[in-house]
Structure formats: C-alpha cells, structure tokens
Amino acid sequence: MTYAPPYSSWYPQPPLPPPQPLQPPLQPLPPQTQTPILYPQIPTTTTTTPQPQIPTQTLYQQPPLPLQPSQQHPLTSTTVEPETIRQFQAVDRLNRGKIGVPELNTALSASGMRFSYATTERLLRMYDVDYDGEIFVNEFQMVLEYIRYMGAAFRRRDTSGDGRLSGDEVRVALKESGYHLNDSTFQVMMRKFDRSKRGSLGFDDYIEISIFLSNVSNAFNENVRTDGNVIFDFDKFIVVSVSLL
Known about the structure:
This protein has a two-stranded antiparallel sheet with strand order 1-2. α3 (101-110) packs across α4. The chain has helices spanning 69-72, 82-91, 101-110, 117-127, 137-157, 167-176, 183-193, 203-223, 234-243; strands at residues 165-166, 200-201. The protein starts with 68 loop residues before the first helix and ends with a helix. It contains 9 helices and 2 strands, in the order αααααβααβαα. It is mainly α and 245 residues long.
C-alpha cells in the first residue's frame, strides 16, 4: 500500500517571511501649543424691535337683539315670581340653572302657550344675552312677561274674537305699530307668516311677524342715510340678512 501525504503537502507552501526586528517603544510626542479657534460670539444685548400696535376692536359685531325688554314693555317686577321658579325647575331636570329651546317649549306648553320650535327659539334668542342658546330663570320670567304683553295686544286687535287676526286686522296692527307698508309688501308678508295658509295669523304667527319687523327696523335704522334711504354693498347686505335669520 502506497503512503499518501496529507492534503496540505500536495502543493508547495510559500516560504514564511523572515522575522522582523523588534521596534523600539514609541516615545510620547512633545506637547504642542495650538491657538484655539475663536468663534464670533452672539452679543448678549439684543435690540427690541417695537411691535406694531393692534387696534382694539370687535371683529364681529353682534346683531341687535330683536326686541329689547326695555323697548317692549315695562317689567312688572324686579324679582322672580315663585310660580315662575316652579315652572323653571319643572323643566330644568338636571338642575343646571339654565334651559334651552326644548325645555322652554315644554314650559310654555305646560302653561297653555303652545309655540312651534322655530318661534320658541326666536323667543329665547330675544333674552339670551350671552348667545349661548340658554336662558336663566330671570330671563325666563322676561320671556313669560313678553308673551303676556303680546297676548294682550293680540286679543285687543282680534276684533272678531276668533283667536286669529284677519288681513284687515293685521294691517291695522301694523299701522298702529308704525309700519306703513304698501299693498304688495303687505301681501308678501302675509304669505310668508301665514304658515297655515288660512288667510289670517294665529298668535304664533303674530309673534313671528313682530320679531321679524323689529329686526328689519333695527337693521334699517342702523344703515339709514339722511335722505331716509339705505344703500347696501353685497357684504353689508349679507351681514344684515344674517341678522334677520
């Protein structure tokens, strides 16, 4: 049997490199002095640039309230009546001290004064001073007093006693209130506020038309010129239209 050398000896191996002489130990380099780089310093004192003064002004002007209580009727009392407190607490079930349109509508209905939600919302907005959609108990009393005041005026003008104002009765009521409208304007008004299409206005409609005319009168008086006319540009027309909603 022939002897086979290991695999590593089949091919000639390269010779090993000669041993290197030992290197002397490295000597520490002498310390070098180097000038540090100086960066420009930001001055600590800064000049104050005067800020432009923003004029104090109201960016959005609140529309005038439809019917101010002082302009509608004198309040009969300065304190809240016990019955008013009872009616208010009956609908203020969460005891928050404020009520919104649904609670006001319920309270009025319980008192025998039935109004649509749209009319109830307009009544609330008349006395919602902070525009948050709710009223306090003293404002609730003012709503009740306003309704009583308007109810007495409605019954006085309802000469037929049928609980509705005919076209002639509405025309007389408008003239007594200082609104002298031509026939075409009057017809447009009646078609708008006669929601039952009976040719007459119920008490709910009477409240609606009274608030609307007060809004229109306030908007007109704020923009009237010395010649008694009003001229609107488009922006102003939008502002006035929004105040009438």
